């Protein structure tokens, strides 16, 4: 068994261990948070959602394992075409996609009748495109050229994030933040990034002020406005501005204390909407306490640390940018989810990677992790060869 493991599992073993712990934690939390719901909806079958999630998770881990065996340098070739495909899918979704709460985010996959969010695919495609674009310009004297480098990649970033933001502002914010970090790591001049950041702050401020002082009620605008108003009023001390979800999440966190109530002993899972996805971190804290919540947070920080290590040791700019970009996407999303659960951030609807119950989003998360492990596999081979030399 150990020999098979060494022959077939490559790359950073700590990353593999982190993923395994997150997946295990997710299985425990999902079973706890869905058993009552499954009992009511599935005629007493309390394991229904656990089995469903377990099947998708198994598929995701297989995708991750398969992807990590591919040389990451092969991803340079399709990067440009994948971003075109992502833009096309996002446009198609906005027009013909499946809608929910005034947002068209999903496409139906024929035959299997599964839905997926093109934004999940677009996140991977955009990071891959930026990494390929910037790596080609390293050392050629074009990296600080505004017209040839910064403007073309910025247009792609704005188009992709803009198309996602119409229906899913939080995902667009995560992706845009990741893109800026990638541009900074890719040695785009700070003056361009500061100008872009300043412009973004101004535009965002204007949008927020406009929403707060007008009666605009079109599409997702009403949802954004309500979330901003509730969050701002809560920060001002108005506890009545808390949503029902936040109230129940706060009760769950308060009940957890330091050590938690124990696995499967959550009470708020019966009252907290989306306890298995958006607010699963609150259930984790209720059952495993503050220490359990910090442990989960530490796992995501470990993921980021190992990704930074890959950047330091990777001799290929494309691999370094690809690994850190995908890692930032996962970690920023994780911390936004946890921030929402403890009410440090407005509600966003982002799942907790590898832990929240999900469908195709879990598959794309696994794909991203597989690519990171592919880069780490190559990096470790380089380190071993250098040590032997």
Characterise the protein shown here:
The protein has helices at 2-8, 13-41, 48-68, 79-96, 118-136, 146-165, 169-185, 190-212, 221-235, 244-256, 280-313, 317-341, 360-388; strands at residues 98-100, 103-109, 114-116. By secondary structure, it is mainly alpha-helical. The protein is 69% helix and 3% strand. It is built from 13 helices and 3 strands; from the N terminus they run H-H-H-H-E-E-E-H-H-H-H-H-H-H-H-H. Among the domains are: 1-23 and 55-70, no CATH class; 75-215 and 315-363, no CATH class. A 3-stranded antiparallel sheet has the order 1-2-3.
Which key features would you list for this structure?
single chain; mainly alpha; three-stranded antiparallel β-sheet; 3% strand
Q: Based on helices, strands and strand pairing, what is the structural class?
A: mainly alpha
Strand order within the widest beta sheet = 1-2-3
Straight-line distance between termini: 31 Å
* Rg on CA atoms, Å: 21 Å
String of helices and strands:
HHHHEEEHHHHHHHHH
User: What's the count of strands?
Assistant: 3
The number of helical runs is 13
State mean pLDDT (0 to 100 scale): 83
Shape: globular
The level of helicity is: 55-70%
Percent of sequence in beta strands: under 5%
Low-pLDDT ranges = none
Major β-sheet, in short?
3 strands, antiparallel
């Amino acid at each position: 068994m150990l020999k098979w493991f060494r022959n077939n599992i490559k790359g950073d073993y700590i990353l593999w261990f982190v993923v395994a712990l997150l997946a295990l934690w997710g299985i425990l939390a999902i079973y706890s948070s869905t058993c009552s719901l499954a009992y009511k909806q599935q005629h007493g079958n309390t394991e229904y959602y656990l089995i469903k999630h377990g099947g998708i998770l198994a598929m995701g881990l297989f995708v991750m394992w398969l992807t990590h065996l591919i040389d990451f340098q092969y991803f340079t070739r399709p990067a440009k075409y994948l971003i075109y495909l992502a833009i096309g899918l996002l446009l198609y979704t906005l027009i013909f996609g499946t809608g929910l709460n005034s947002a068209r985010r999903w496409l139906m996959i024929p035959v299997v009748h599964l839905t997926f969010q093109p934004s999940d695919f677009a996140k991977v495609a955009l990071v891959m495109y930026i990494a390929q674009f910037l790596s080609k310009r390293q050392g050629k004297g074009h990296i600080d050229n505004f017209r040839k480098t910064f403007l073309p990649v910025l247009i792609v970033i704005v188009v992709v994030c803009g198309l996602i933001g119409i229906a899913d502002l939080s995902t667009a914010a995560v992706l845009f933040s990741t893109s800026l970090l990638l541009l900074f790591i890719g040695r785009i001049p700070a003056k361009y990034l500061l100008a872009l950041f300043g412009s973004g702050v101004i535009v965002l401020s204007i949008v927020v002020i406009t929403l707060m002082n007008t009666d605009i009620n079109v599409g997702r605008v009403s949802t954004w406005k309500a979330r901003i108003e509730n969050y701002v009023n809560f920060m001002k001390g108005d506890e009545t501005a808390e949503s029902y979800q936040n109230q129940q999440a706060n009760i769950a966190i308060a009940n957890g204390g330091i050590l938690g109530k124990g696995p499967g002993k959550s009470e708020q899972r019966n009252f907290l909407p989306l306890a298995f996805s958006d607010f699963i971190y609150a259930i984790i804290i209720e059952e495993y306490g503050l220490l359990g919540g910090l442990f989960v947070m530490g796992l995501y920080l470990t993921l980021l640390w190992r990704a930074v290590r890959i950047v330091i040791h990777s001799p290929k700019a494309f691999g370094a940018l690809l690994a850190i970009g995908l890692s930032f996407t996962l970690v920023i999303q994780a911390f936004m989810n946890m921030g929402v659960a403890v009410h440090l951030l407005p509600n966003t609807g982002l799942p907790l990677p590898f832990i929240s119950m999900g469908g195709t989003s879990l598959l794309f998360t696994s794909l991203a992790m597989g690519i990171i492990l592919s880069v780490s596999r190559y990096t470790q081979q380089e380190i071993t060869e250098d040590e032997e030399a």
